[in-house]
Amino acid sequence: MTSSALSFPASASSPFERWHRHFLHNRDAPCTLPWQEPYHLSPTELRVAGRSIQQFQLGEWARGRGLKRRAASHPVLGTDPSFLPALELFIAEEQGHSAILGRFLDRERIPRLANNWLDGVFRRLRKLAGLDVCVTVLVTAEVLAMPFYEALRDATRSSLLRSICMRILRDEAAHLKYQALTLGLVRRPLSGAARTICSLGHSALFHGTALLLWQQHRKMFHAAGWSFASFWNDARRWFRLLQRRIENCDPSNLVPL
Ligand SMILES: [Fe+2]
Ligand SMILES: [Fe+2]
């Protein structure tokens, strides 16, 4: 199939139009988090969760220049009039997560990280190839963000941190659908064999990263009452859901709630 046969004419309904509206709505909705709560993390909570929050605050922040460049030059999605505007708002939403976590770190007098080796590996991986690889690496981190924030939500007695995690979890659950739409459409022109290879590569990346994530954050998971088995099962459940959505890729289902 040629790229022109797949391109989106300006008059056609864009599968990303609703996502654009969703991100706009999120951006303009008031952000109500209980910043005034008097509770501060105890020394034990700082020890088990501080480093984890630092790492995710850094990981959530990206300019997204490479992603936008790849998206703009993509022969199919680049022609969708809503794709790039939605992507810009998606990147801004991720930066918003980083800003919220950064404000929490400042409030708890935990220094922000300037760099982290795992974050650096992910940033380099995203630069390796085209839009497919870039989004695949990005969404792998987003799948693992689900068990991470579910555990962080319960790891301390801070209701502020709990509210922050719930807010981010709500956004990330939508991101998984949004990225499944992107990857599903990017992979649609591929042969069945090529799609299987993509899926196997993604699965290997996901499982390797999940093991690293557990190794880096197991103290925080334990504080929230999670065992390795509960982490592994939850992470794999989110990943299977993502893979099903990519494989089936029905744009009419992959819309915001
Ligand atoms: Fe995020
Ligand atoms: Fe996300």
Structure description:
- The protein has 257 residues and is mainly α.
- The chain has one domain: Ferritin.
- Helices cover 71% and strands 0% of the residues.
- It contains 10 helices and no strands.
- The chain has helices at 3-6, 17-28, 43-59, 65-72, 83-107, 117-126, 131-155, 159-187, 192-223, 228-248.
- Helix 3 (43-59) packs antiparallel against helix 5 (83-107), helix 3 (43-59) runs antiparallel to helix 9 and helix 9 (192-223) packs antiparallel against helix 10 (228-248).
- The longest helix has 32 residues, at 192-223.
- The chain is globular and about 55 Å long.
What's the gist of this structure?
By secondary structure, the protein is mainly α.
Q: Which bin fits the share of residues in helices? A: over 70%
Rg from C-alpha positions? 19 Å
CATH superfamily: Ferritin, core subunit, four-helix bundle
Bound molecule types: fe (ii) ion
Largest β sheet strand count, sense and barrel closure: none
Q: What structural keywords apply?
A:
disordered N terminus, binds fe (ii) ion, globular, Ferritin, 257 residues, mainly alpha
Show the helix and strand layout.
Layout: H1 3-6, H2 17-28, H3 43-59, H4 65-72, H5 83-107, H6 117-126, H7 131-155, H8 159-187, H9 192-223, H10 228-248
Helix pairs in contact: 2-5, 3-5, 3-9, 5-8, 7-8, 7-9, 7-10, 8-10, 9-10
The chain binds fe (ii) ion (2 copies).
